[in-house]
Amino acid sequence: MPEARQSPQESAVPALAVIACGALARELKVVSEQGGLAIKLACLPAHLHNRPQLIPEAVRRKIRSLRKLGAPIFCAYGDCGTGGELDRVLVEEGVERLPGAHCYAFYAGLDAFEAMHDAEPGTFYLTDFLVRHFERLMVKGLGLDRHPELFEDYFRNYRRVVYLRQQPVPDLVERAREAAAFLRLPLEIRDTGFGLLGSEVLQRVRARG
After folding, report:
1. Which of 94, 141, 180, 188 has the least C-beta neighbours within 10 A?
2. Going by DSSP bridges, is the β-strand pair 39-44/73-76 parallel, antiparallel, or unpaired?
3. Section 6-35 average pLDDT
């Protein structure tokens, strides 16, 4: 029997394979669609942030599974609490990542984020993803729905909430206000767009072309 032929979509090599935290999946899809970018997006679960020591080897496994595509690979993670272990793995595998310690930095811009942090180290940051999933990740994820007495242990040192907003969605503003009210902190909203997320991915796709 003759071999089945692959469709152009199946056989084409993507311009870039992007390994991303699940917290960035929605934004990366928008970036790729708006830019008409032929990228392969491979996401790891966002809840790995609760156990960052697992991120480096999870990224390594994903890198090795993507090599068969024949496309360059990019890692859409910050250090994300791995204490440099993610960078060690990426050096060994020959893969670059987004600049900065975490998504707050590359959304806001590295210099702007550093200035915000210096102005008030006790800042609780929100992104579109965290606003959407605040109840699941912060309230239920930290057990505050069952043990509200833990609230002070987690949040006593925070002084404000800064919502780094990627897209102007009115519903998310209201939900950010609700999150800040839960945290008993004042809310500040800063429009960042996709920050370095879009430009770094676009730069690597263009380098491929």
Report:
1. 94
2. unpaired
3. 81
Q: What angle do CA 44, 131, 54 make, to 5 degrees?
A: 25
Tell me how far apart the alpha carbons of residues 108 and 171 are, in angstroms, rounded to a whole number.
21
For residue 209, name the pLDDT band (cuts at 50, 70, 90). Answer: low
Count the residues in the chain.
209
Residue of 188, 192, 167 whose CA lies nearest to 177: 188
Kindly report the average pLDDT of the chain as a whole number. 91
Q: What angle do CA 66, 206, 166 make, to 5 degrees?
A: 80
* Domain 8-103+195-208 class, CATH top level: alpha beta
Give the confidence band of 71 by pLDDT, cuts at 50, 70, 90: very high
Domain ranges (residues) in the chain: 8-103+195-208, 110-191
Q: Whose CA is closest to 196, among 128, 108, 126, 114?
A: 108
Please say whether the beta carbons of 124 and 185 come within 8 A.
Answer: yes
Q: pTM of this prediction?
A: 0.84
196-209 as b/e, with b when 16 or more CB fall inside 10 Å? bbbebbbebbeeee
pLDDT band at 202 (very low <50, low <70, confident <90, very high): confident
Continuous H helices in 16-102: 25-35, 55-66, 85-93
Give the pLDDT confidence of 49-64 residue by residue, as tens digits: 889 999 999 999 999 9
